[in-house]
Task: inverse folding
């Protein structure tokens, strides 16, 4: 099980990485922007789960979603945002989940339950 | 598509105080999981150490702010907690660090940890039960 978290904000990114790492007891890959993440995925393979801010630098969240799903359809892509209008956009684009900010431990644990344990 | 988190009308950026409270809740869960005998693993240990360190540093900073404000004006900080709360938070972070470093807590220390957790949960009205998180039973 490979999980990646992509966010330019280190405070939120580190919190999400730490919470997921504890939940699944596996390493979680952190990335600052979409392009770095995509280059890593091309070399090392696309993760099973990607959790990312919608607003990514270099490669937008929507562009990354398209590339990821094109290469590995069953990768779970979860986006988060503080803007409500992004929800419809990511749904239309085929994301698996939307996390509305602010969120906390409970929401991240729910994601683990649904996408890791239950395997939805 | 699964949807979680804030209602559309309540959506906003995640602030530092949000992250502090979330990390504190995570540390409480980590400690409760230990007391429940849930297994640790390499990555969980790393995560506990990092989280405990974050919470400890933030609690020290917030407590210093609180002391500074209390000297000048009768001010309760933005989170509305007193210095005893931050002492409890620091104690929890030290205890969690000890757990992650493999120190086996004796019974009286486990009791002290439980009392501290109960007091903190009461302060922040946090009632998450580790029994709700069955996946933590698997390392």
Result:
């Amino acid at each position: 099980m490979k999980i990646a978290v992509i966010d330019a904000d280190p405070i939120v990114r580190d919190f999400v990485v730490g919470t997921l790492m504890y939940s699944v007891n596996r390493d979680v890959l952190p990335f600052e922007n979409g392009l770095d993440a995509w280059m890593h995925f091309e070399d090392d393979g696309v993760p099973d789960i990607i959790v990312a801010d919608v607003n990514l630098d270099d490669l937008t969240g929507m562009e990354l979603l398209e590339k990821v799903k094109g290469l590995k359809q069953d990768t779970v892509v979860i986006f988060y945002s503080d803007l409500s209008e992004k929800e419809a956009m990511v749904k239309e684009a085929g994301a698996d989940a939307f996390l509305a900010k602010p969120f906390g431990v409970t929401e991240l644990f729910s994601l683990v339950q649904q996408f890791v344990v239950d395997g939805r | 598509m699964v949807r979680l988190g804030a209602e559309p009308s309540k959506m906003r950026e995640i602030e530092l105080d949000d992250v502090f409270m979330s990390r504190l809740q995570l540390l409480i869960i980590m400690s409760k999981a230990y007391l429940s005998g849930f297994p640790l693993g390499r990555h969980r240990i790393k995560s506990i150490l990092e989280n405990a360190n974050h919470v400890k540093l933030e609690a020290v900073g917030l407590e210093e702010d609180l002391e500074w404000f209390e000297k000048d004006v009768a001010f309760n900080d933005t989170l509305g907690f007193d210095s005893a709360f931050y002492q409890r938070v620091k104690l929890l972070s030290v205890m969690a660090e000890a757990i992650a470093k493999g120190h086996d807590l004796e019974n009286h220390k486990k009791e002290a940890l439980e009392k501290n957790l109960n007091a903190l949960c009461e302060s922040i009205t946090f009632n998450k039960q580790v029994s709700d998180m069955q996946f933590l039973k698997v390392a």
